[in-house]
Amino acid sequence: MSKRVLAAAMVAMLAIAGCGSGSGSGDPKTLKLWHYEPPDSAMGVAWAEAIKQFEASHPGVKVAFEEKGFEQIQKTAPMVLNSGDAPDVLEYNKGNATAGLLSKQGLLTDISEEVAKRGWDKQLTPALQTTARYDENGVMGSGKWYGIPNYAEYVKIFYNKDMFARQGLEQPRTIEQLTAAMDKFAGAGITPLAVGGSEYPAHQVLYQLALTKADRGWVDRYQRYTGKVDFHDAAWTYGATTFADWVKKGYISKESAGVDAEAMGMSFMQGKYPIMISGSWWYGRLVQSIKDFQWGSVPWPGMTAGSAGNMWVIPKGSKNRDLALDFIAITMSQPIQDKLREAGGVPVVNGPTPPAEPRLKDLVEDFTALSTQDKLAFYPDWPAPGYYDVHVSATQKLITSSAQPSQVLDELAKPYEENLANVGK
Prior knowledge:
This protein is an alpha+beta fold. The chain folds into 2 domains: 10-150 and 309-352, D-Maltodextrin-Binding Protein, domain 2, CATH 3.40.190; 154-306 and 380-423, Periplasmic binding protein-like II (D-Maltodextrin-Binding Protein, domain 2), CATH 3.40.190.10. The chain contains 18 helices and 14 strands. The chain has helices spanning 42-57, 70-81, 96-104, 112-118, 120-123, 126-129, 161-166, 175-187, 200-211, 216-224, 234-248, 261-269, 283-289, 321-331, 334-342, 358-372, 387-400, 405-420, and strands at 10-14, 29-35, 61-67, 89-92, 133-134, 144-145, 148-149, 151-160, 193-194, 275-279, 295-299, 306-308, 311-313, 346-347. The strands form 3 sheets. A 6-stranded mixed beta sheet has the order 1-3-2-4-13-7. Strands 8, 9, 10, 11, 12 and 14 form a 6-stranded mixed beta sheet that branches. The chain has a two-stranded antiparallel sheet with strand order 5-6. Strand 2 (29-35), helix 1 (42-57) and strand 3 (61-67) form a beta-alpha-beta unit. Helix 1 crosses helix 14 (321-331), helix 1 (42-57) packs antiparallel against helix 15 (334-342) and helix 17 packs antiparallel against helix 18 (405-420). The longest helix has 16 residues, at 42-57. It comes from Amycolatopsis coloradensis. This is Extracellular solute-binding protein.
């Protein structure tokens, strides 16, 4: 899972004056589109432009766009996609617990033939293809294509340069530097880390800590069921105990258990916290919103949560599959990918011209390095259906100190192990 967007469901009809009906009936065709990117995000900017280009290149066809909340789709997709209300194309989360589960349930369209025909398999690197393909058990990494990722994402360390300078601190490029910085802030009476404990951010921090002791084999055993997972091994134990220690030392506020992702991001953008460990999806908003201080970002040391971004999928009940495929193709075009990049996103199709903004150059180059070095570790809630809520709840207990690290790891282990039977492992 990747990110949470707090947005009320709303419908914005985007139409262009057509020169005739695509169906020959006098009524224009309609492409029903759902996604959960806010309009000021990099993806929201890019997809708005893609809609304009789609309508311009498809006279008589209009796009009926509905903005959905991330968790709204997360919780209702299986029911909605199995009804007559399914859209023609939608943004959906990737991984075994989401896209994999829907592919196994027969709710998504196999687009393998179109992927080859349109050359999308050539545009996407093997690492980015992992989350687009699922086998008969809904396990990612092989089998048929059920979606197309159209941006990339990864978790990194954002920091307030002004607050760091006032404490005489350098950018936190290692765990030791990060810990020393948080210790100094805490000693000065400043809670160092902005955290959203009621949604994805907190459990991603726990996962990041575990990843400092992990390798590719560890990630594949956990994410792709290639071997036995021990939730009390050195990596998981380090992640949970270190997270609990950060709470104890005041690096993480106990009040953050009730904070959502949007409030976390806003608090960092308002200069209330010096550090935020979260995803590249914040980048565009930080560039646009932060005016009162200097900020920067550095890669998480070692492996990091990240992957191809959420992807376009076509429900089995889509009434306009060809139009849906055409829309996906536009989002994969160089102009739209460049638009996404210039707005602060990580493109999956890199153009020959580097971005003008130095921070955007770093954003893209850092992801390219992670991808080519095989350091992308997906996200902690992917392996099992319903696992997102389990991770949120378990990590909240570390924040409130209502459970010991070993008990939290037991809580993570139980549903994971129960799910193995469902995927034939």
